[in-house]
Amino acid sequence: MSKPETTGGGKAAGMSLGQLEAGYLAYCKALRLLVQEGHSLNAIKRTLCWQRLEMLHHVLPRQYRDPVM
Question: Is 35 helix (H, G, I), strand (E, B) or coil?
């Protein structure tokens, strides 16, 4: 599984699973900042960090939680 499927818009086209995993902590931090700033769930779901976290969960559900949780 070197290239995970994208979740709309093809934003992760060409990213390897290793690249997604390497960015995991940054995606989580960005998500926490968005929540702290009071953004709505709908607005957060349109962000790159949300899409990447969703992809990680989709590809490796036992290792990465669903971002909704």
Answer: helix
- Condensed to tens digits (0 to 9), the pLDDT of residues 2-43 reads 444 444 444 455 678 999 999 999 999 999 999 999 999 999
Residue environment code for 20-57, b if the CB has 16+ CB neighbours within 10 A, otherwise e: beebeeebeebbeebeeeeeeeeebeeeebbbbbbbbb
Looking at residue 36, its amino acid is: Q
CA distance 54 to 60: 10
E strand or H helix at 3: none
Q: What pTM was computed for the model?
A: 0.74
